[in-house]
């Protein structure tokens, strides 16, 4: 009799155990959406004249918070911190121009693309760099943990010029190194060229890099399928509503690039 009662109690305990809350529930219950955003990536993420977070990614964070009817909290992160803030639970989502590589997908979850970039250099005006081939023998800088760094190091290895590479914690440090002549070229994305060349008199637009277009995604917890599904719906809604085109025009200018990857169905 006692064994039977114990078995029934065990089954009841298993069936009535605490439900696992997902990020969507956590955000709504908390009343705050914590967004990791890279703020040294103008005009996508930066600080305005009042030192407040601003840019394309910041507006996306605010739009998502509005859709969830919660407050937005922007957490400034470096390029290298984009994945750790999700894994450790410091942020609910990251808007940070993050490429959806298979290696990264073992650690965090990705949405469908929400922005597209291509890599381009900013060069010191006295560097003599006009074409991609002109980079041979020059000092190259990029932010640590970014696709430009990863792709450039492959080329540097082929050229035997790894010693000429300089890695920095932030893109602002990369741009400053180029402006001061400590590096000949800094590799960034096309969207950063105009504001950086306007900021520094000694920096001009450089050549485009040869690797492929960079499709970037919103980042969330890998195991939280409900949250990733919601984020995918949000990205889709931004496009359908015209908000994506509006914000791209506001911060970058020109027509917003097509987010659909050729030959891939979303």
Automatic annotation (TrEMBL):
Domain Solute-binding protein family 3/N-terminal: from-to ranges: 32-255
One Pfam family named in its UniProt record: SBP_bac_3
Keyword annotations from UniProtKB, A to Z: Signal
Transmembrane portions of the chain: none
Record carries keyword Metal-binding: no
Signal peptide interval: 1-21
Top-level taxon: Bacteria
UniProt-listed PANTHER family: GLUTAMINE-BINDING PERIPLASMIC PROTEIN, MEMBRANE-BOUND LYTIC MUREIN TRANSGLYCOSYLASE F
UniProt-recorded name of the protein: Transporter substrate-binding domain-containing protein
Organism encoding this protein: Halocynthiibacter halioticoli
């Amino acid at each position: 009799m006692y064994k039977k009662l114990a078995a029934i109690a065990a089954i009841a305990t298993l069936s009535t155990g605490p439900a696992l809350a997902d990020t969507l529930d956590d955000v709504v219950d908390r009343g705050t959406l914590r967004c990791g955003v890279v703020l040294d990536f103008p005009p996508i993420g930066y600080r305005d004249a009042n030192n407040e977070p601003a840019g394309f990614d910041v507006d996306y964070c605010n739009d998502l918070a509005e859709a969830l009817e919660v407050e937005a909290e922007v957490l400034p992160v470096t390029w290298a911190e984009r994945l750790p803030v999700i894994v450790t639970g410091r942020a609910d989502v990251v808007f940070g121009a993050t490429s959806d590589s298979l290696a990264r997908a073992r650690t965090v979850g990705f949405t469908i693309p929400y922005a597209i970039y291509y890599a381009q250099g900013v060069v010191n005006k006295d560097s003599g760099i006009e074409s991609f081939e002109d980079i041979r023998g020059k000092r190259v800088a990029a932010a640590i943990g970014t696709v430009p760094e990863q792709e450039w190091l492959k080329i540097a290895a082929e050229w035997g010029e790894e010693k000429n590479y300089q890695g920095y914690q932030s893109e602002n440090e990369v741009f400053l190194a180029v402006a001061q002549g400590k590096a000949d070229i800094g590799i960034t994305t096309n969207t950063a060229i105009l504001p950086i060349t306007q900021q520094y008199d000694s920096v001009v637009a450089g050549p485009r890099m040869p690797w492929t277009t960079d499709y970037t995604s919103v980042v969330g917890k890998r195991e939280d399928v409900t949250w990733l599904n919601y984020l995918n719906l949000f990205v889709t809604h931004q496009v359908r509503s015209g908000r994506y085109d509006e914000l791209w025009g506001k911060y970058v200018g020109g027509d917003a690039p097509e987010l659909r990857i050729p030959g891939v169905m979303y």
